[in-house]
Specification:
single chain; mainly alpha; Rossmann fold; Serine Threonine Protein Phosphatase 5, Tetratricopeptide repeat; 4 domains; six-stranded mixed β-sheet; 32 helices; 65% helix; 5% strand
């Protein structure tokens, strides 16, 4: 007790109450800074508590420092106090030297308080396992700021299960990062192109137009998950941070890892990760590891496109919701994938019942989720061309993820389908800036500029897209070929053919250039019978094949194609009846109309196509244009030239997508009209617009 009294007396004698008071104030300020950093940088929740512990530890250090300084003050270190000094001091104010001594101690207290804060931050970095280096943004354009691409994850295992899991985790992390509004995240569609690439990281960053790249290795062994990730400056190939996450495989741990990665990325980029965004990343979509794994695998297949991949995606997503019927995100993905299968003719219209069932489940479970809003927009667009409903859902989804290139793509697609290409092209261009390696966007820019007869822009978009050298490039090449034919440029079309394309495209282009445009109809008919690749009906409909045989005078062959088409389309119409699927109905009616024409049923052909035109006029400008062109073909082959010309004039007044002066000059189908002045006037058009003065 006497020692405590002596200590208190010494603190009082040496005027150290002020030191303690200033230390407390400095510590309080330091603690406020710690709390601000914790909230702003999303540091661990234990960060403020650790700061308090260190500040408490710093208190005796301050006192000890003050005593040492006292010993070094006055007459120097080691000086013995004189008898006069040892005598009791009068109750007067301290000398000036005492004040100087006090403020020196106060300064020590403040410095130590903030040193504790610095040490806390350093300790967080060390204990957190990642040394984060802030990226330099000097001279960086606004477009590049906060831009990141997640490269495909590598995996230790080479089996299909390991590869699919790594691909699924890559896609899911990309999705989770897109929830951070301050980040510009390149889509999985683009980054997947770089799986196994030999390109350098700066080359990839330049092609994707991003500032940083995240790459990683995923290993899953039994119930354990290891993710090694590193963030790299795309300009210099320098590491900004590297981290290894070793945790038991649970859905919660996967999302926790993704949340940590998001925090580290935003810290390095000086971006912001809000509490709400972190909560959205960490929100459990399901507690079932089995359901989550099935979902990830399903999304991998969905991203790869194709008939078989779509079937496998649907099977895995169905497994996910069967394991966990409350898995809302999986229900939404299932609705979207099932609708795509129908839209791309991988499934029949009877499958719309299953689409709407999955959509209803997602709405009931998570009506405001991004995935649900996206699925609702896709179903409204694909099933009924309900642009108002689809646009409402897409816009709501865009609010949640403003940097999502797919939403921009769908918004532009709806403008396109309404014939509003002047408005659609800038939105497609925005999607291309957000996701420069997505071939689909470049295809849309080819189609859009073709509609407006901006053929130089068509060439630029096609050349840019074909640089990507991916599977969808064959579709892009096909649209470019059609654009060359529409402007009558057979020489460049031939050069494109010689560069190589898929077997269907190569067969059809060669057939058109070498025989059809040369009026060698017998060679056309014989080739269609003897050399036509299996599955060629996916490239050109059976009804159109019937017309080609009819042009060659092969009536028996023509009728054989037309008969099979008629049976199939009548069955489709019977299936569609009562399902509120106007677009599917119109498509079946158009094919049926051409079949009736080939079979010699002229009035039935007119009626079927006119009904299709009624359905499409307010729903789909592109399909309406195609149906109007088919109307011209029907009238031409039935001998009503004036009606055929009226349909052609209507098309060319609006677009050069399905017909153009260039193709009218080449196509022998229109030979009966060559001497007609109205037809000749159409050949002089340079841009879509009315004919004549």
């Amino acid at each position: 007790m006497s020692r405590l009294k002596h200590l208190i007396r010494e603190i009082h004698r040496r005027s150290m109450w002020q030191v303690l008071g200033i230390y407390v104030v400095a510590g309080w300020v330091a603690y406020q800074v710690v709390q601000s950093l914790t909230e702003g940088l999303r540091l661990p929740e234990w960060f403020p508590a650790l700061a308090i512990v260190l500040l408490i530890i710093g208190l005796p250090i301050v006192l000890a420092t003050a005593f040492v300084q006292e010993g070094m003050g006055g007459e120097g270190a080691g000086a013995e106090p004189s008898a006069e000094d040892a005598s009791p001091e009068p109750a007067t104010r301290p000398a000036a030297g005492a004040y100087l001594f006090t403020w020196r101690n106060a300064l020590s207290g403040g410095v130590l308080a903030f040193a504790a804060l610095g040490f806390t931050g350093a300790l967080w970095i060390v204990l957190g396992g990642a040394t984060v280096r802030m990226i330099s943004t000097e001279g960086v354009s606004e477009e590049l700021l906060n831009s990141v691409a997640v490269l495909p994850f590598k995996t230790v295992g080479s089996d299909e299960e390991s590869l699919n899991f790594a691909a699924g985790l890559h896609g899911d992390l990309t999705t989770q990062l897109s929830k951070v509004a301050s980040l510009k995240v390149t889509s999985q569609t683009s980054t997947s192109l770089y799986l196994g690439t030999t390109k350098s990281l700066p080359e990839i960053a330049a092609e994707l137009n991003v500032l940083v790249l995240l790459e990683g290795v995923v290993q899953r062994a039994g119930n354990q998950l290891r993710v090694q990730a590193q963030l790299i400056d795309g300009r210099t190939d320098e590491h900004l941070w590297a981290e290894t996450f070793d945790r038991p495989f649970t859905v919660e741990n996967v999302l926790s890892i993704q949340s940590d990665i998001a925090r580290l990325i935003t810290t390095a980029l000086r971006a912001t990760l809000t509490k709400e965004e972190q909560a959205a990343i960490e929100e459990l979509p399901t507690e079932s590891e089995e359901a989550f794994s099935a979902y990830l695998e399903g999304m991998v297949h969905a991203a790869r496109r194709g008939r078989d991949e779509s079937r496998q995606a649907i099977e895995r997503l169905e497994a996910a919701v069967r394991i966990d019927p409350s898995f809302a995100v999986a229900w939404a993905a299932l609705a979207a994938e099932r609708s795509r299968a129908i839209f791309q003719s991988f499934a029949g219209p009877e499958s719309w019942d299953a689409v709407r069932e999955a959509e209803a489940k997602a709405i009931a479970l998570a009506p405001d989720a991004f995935e649900t809003l996206l699925a609702q927009g896709l179903v409204a667009y694909r099933s009924r061309r309900d642009y108002q409903t689809a646009n409402r859902h897409f816009e709501a989804a865009l609010v949640k993820r403003p940097g999502d290139s797919a939403i921009h793509l769908w918004l532009a697609t709806m403008l396109k389908r309404q014939g509003r290409y002047e408005e659609a092209i800038p939105v497609f261009e925005r999607a291309a800036r957000l996701d420069p390696a997505a071939v689909t966007t470049w295809v849309e820019l080819v189609i859009g500029n073709r509609w407006l007869a901006r053929f130089e822009d068509v060439d630029r978009a096609a050349a840019r897209g074909l640089l990507l050298k991916q599977s969808e490039g064959t579709a892009l090449a096909a649209y470019w070929y059609e654009s060359l034919i529409l402007r009558g440029d057979t020489a460049r079309a031939r050069a494109l053919l010689d560069e190589g394309t898929d077997q269907y495209g190569a067969f059809y282009w060669a057939l058109e250039l070498d025989h059809y445009f040369q009026r060698d109809f017998q060679a056309v008919s014989d080739s269609l019978v003897s050399r036509r690749p299996d599955g060629f009906g996916a490239t050109i409909s059976g009804a159109r094949l019937g017309v080609l045989h009819l042009q060659a005078g092969e009536e028996q062959r023509a009728r054989a194609f037309a008969d099979s088409v008629k049976v199939a389309e009548l069955q489709a119409l019977n299936t569609i009846e009562g399902r509120d699927l106007p677009f599917d109905e119109a498509a079946a009616l158009r094919r049926l109309a051409l079949a009736e024409l080939v079979l010699g049923n002229g009035e039935a052909a007119r009626e079927r196509n006119e009904r299709a035109l009624e359905i499409l006029e307010s729903r789909d400008a592109i399909e309406y244009g195609l149906a109007r062109l088919e109307q011209a073909v029907i009238e031409l082959l039935l001998g009503d030239h004036d009606a055929a010309l009226e349909s052609l004039e209507g098309n060319l007044a609006v677009e050069f997508l399905s017909v153009s002066p260039g193709i009218l000059r080449l196509d022998p189908l229109w030979d009966p009209l060559r001497d007609n002045p109205r037809f000749q006037a159409l050949l002089e058009l340079e841009r879509p617009g009315p004919v004549g003065p």
